[in-house]
Amino acid sequence: MEIIVHQAILHVLDTTLDAPVLSGSCMEMTAEKTAYLQYHIEKLLASDDIRQCRPLPDSAFRYELEQNKDFIDLSCRIAGVLFDYMHAHTTIPGADLAVVDFTRDGQPWLGILKLNYKNGYTHYTESVDGAPVNSIIQQRACLPTQSGKVEEGALVDLTDYSMKLLEKKFDIDGHKEFYLSTVVFQYTTAEPEKKKLQAIQDAAVQAVQENYQDEPHVEAQVAMLIANQAADNDNKVTVEQVRRQLAEEYPLAAVPFDDYVEKSDVLEPAQAQQPVTVSPARIRRMESRSIHTASGIEVKIPTEILSEDSAVEFLHAEDGSVSLLIKNVIL
What we know:
By secondary structure, the chain is of the alpha+beta class. Helix content is about 35%, strand content about 30%.
């Protein structure tokens, strides 16, 4: 995946002020600024907390995207709508808003990163009786670090105006509610990617267990199957891909898998055909299995060797306890 930042602008949405501080021109893009924005865009794209959203028919934001080709004016309008709502609902944290014009693998995208303020500390120096005195001062408006996390943001695919949205609920008039999808963008809300992934995984596990009762470690084997699919397909997986893999490895599970997917409350028919993003961190977790003993010992075993008797063996005792035998250990 190649992310190229073409231009970016930063607006100050400090809700202790009566109005936003809007930039009149784009930032000069240094290597450090480019790397900062690229990192957070890539992290959002890979997040399994992201929601796949589409514009509602009366979305003013979608209309603005289609009609307004002035990047600076467009960014100011987005910042203005966002600030007005934030200023009216002070539970929403103040932030700097970075609006980014970028391409992803050659396709045009718009990034809207809400960089929520964090408290931090730094030194400052003052002169006391003619001598320098160093002390500590609190910074109220620190931005997320380059290795930190953007808590709210939207990435818009300008080829079809679909959106990858990361949003949080805040107390709005006494109720915890989303506001980015419903008020600022007027887009549909969808389940986070991790919930859709879990629904696909649960459907596959149920289908295999139902038809292969003697198959050991079904959950781990299905997790590995999905992880391999995601690793081979740019960190994405679809229901159809999982079904095809089940048909190859567990033929009797393919049809029941379709039934479980259809019954899922998370996998709506329109969304079931859409790719689900699987973050690299989740792929790594799916590729191994952690086993904990009552005495606190933890053993991490690669999923692919769980069923290889030449590597590990689970011994079931009459009292219901299970012992793990690890073979061919070299110390």
